[in-house]
Each structure stands twice: as C-alpha cells, then as structure tokens.
Amino acid sequence: EIVLTQSPGTLSLSPGERATLSCRASQSVSSYLAWYQQKPGQAPRVLIYDASKRATGIPARFSGSGSGTDFTLTISSLEPEDFAVYFCQQRRSWPLTFGGGTRVQIK
Amino acid sequence: EVQLLESGGGLVQPGGSLRLSCAASGLTFRSFAIHWVRQAPGKGLEWVSGLIGSDANTHYADSVKGRFTISRDNSNNTLYLQMNSLRAEDTAVYYCAKGLAASPNWFDPWGQGTLVTVSS
Q: What is the arrangement of strands in the sheet containing B3-7, beginning at the earlier edge strand?
C-alpha cells in the first residue's frame, strides 16, 4: 500500500498570503496524484488531478506540481473561502490511498 | 448536472449488516467508475471500494475485503454497498463518488454522505 504523508498538519496564514502544501508518497506514484478540498460539513471536491491539471471550475490561484514521490499544492493568494482541509490521493496502485490532510486556518 | 444521493445509514450493532444506496442522476450510470469513500468522525478520508468500467471490475480496501460488497443496478442508476460483519471501526460517514471522465479513479462529484454508526 502506498502511504501518503502530508505536511504540515496545520498551516496558519492570513488572506492574501501564499499557501504551500506538501504530499510525499512512500513510493513513486508517477503523476497519479490528486488534491481535494473539504470544508466543514461538506463533501470533498477535487481541485487538481494528474498532479497539475485543474479540475473544471477551479480557480487559477490553485496549482499543483511534482512527480514521483514529492508533490505540492500551491494557493497563490488565499481567499476567505480557501480556509479548509486539503487531502492528496494517489491512483498509481490499489488500494487507492489518501494523505492525512493539511488544515489551512486563518491566522 | 450529476447528482449523487446516499441513503441507508444508521445505527447497527457490532456483527450486524447494513446496505447503503447511492442514487445517481444526470449521467449514464454504466459508463462511469463509481466509488465508496468513508470518513470516520474527525478523521481523514479512506477509500473503501470501487466499481470500474462497463465490465464492472471491483476493488476493495483490505480493511473491508470479504465483508463488504459493491454492486450497481444500471436500470435505476443506483450503487450499493452491502456491509456485513460490521465493526466499531467501520463507524464513519460514507460517501459515494463518481470517477472523473478523464480518469476513473479521481473522485468528482461526491454525494453528501450517510452516517453509519456501529455500536452496542
């Protein structure tokens, strides 16, 4: 099973600041990594898939990069609605696995 | 617009069974992969099971293999998860999620979830 480790666990930032979230895989997942956002009381939604492709309707301030074992989700300038929990997920091999999540909170 | 609506959650005793349903609208159901993902209270996401493609290949997490069965009824656009031999650690909100057209194993959209509580 591929283990995904996200860091940091919590990120405290102000609106307008840049957020950089990390996801590290226990073995190579090539570019088969996605990022999801989850707000309290809501289901997750996909932001980025195949490491760097923005899903339909996702603002350009969200970008993904990386390949192999190290990946980054960047939010270029935080909007109030971006404060949420973010999860990475791999589809390189079964079982599909998620990282433990990074909470982005208001400083 | 694709919409997914889960139902069937509730309180069940350890060792008991429950069947979850996920009603889909706005899509040709048989053409897409569809998955179950769960989230224990206050915890992260755990993929549970997926049904892939028109030939309906099934996959399971090790934690549920042999106890849970995923299936679908194309005639009424409904996905099921039969859960047997339930344990306390199965307590979670269960989401169904459709695979992206670009790739079957990315999840979007998701339903709103149904809560399963396993407790005596």
A: B3-7, B18-25, B78-83, B68-73
Cross-strand pairs, A66: A71
Distance, in Å, from the CA atom of B52 to the CA atom of B55, rounded to the nearest integer, reads 7
CB contact under 8 A, B112 and A96: no
Q: How far is A42 from chain B (nearest CA, A)?
A: 7
Nearest CB to B44: which of A34, A46, A87? A87
Burial of B18 (0-12, 13-18, 19+ CB in 10 A): buried
| A12/B81 Cα distance (integer angstroms) | 38
Please state, in angstroms and rounded to a whole number, the distance separating the CA atoms of residues B12 and B5.
Answer: 21
Across the interface, of A43, A46, A96, the residue whose CB is closest to B95 is: A43
Distances (CA, A) of B112 to A41, A67, B37, B62: 9, 31, 11, 25
Please, what's the b/e burial string for A16-38 (b: 16 or more CB within 10 A of its CB; e: otherwise)? eeebebbbbbeeebebbbbbbbb
The 10s digit of each residue's pLDDT in B96-118 is: 999 988 788 999 999 999 999 99
Write the pLDDT tens digit of every residue in A21-51: 999 999 999 999 999 999 999 999 999 999 9
Q: Do B45 and A45 touch (CB under 8 A)?
A: no
To the nearest whole angstrom, how far is the Cα of B109 from the nearest Cα of chain A?
Answer: 7
- pLDDT > 90: percent of chain B: 77
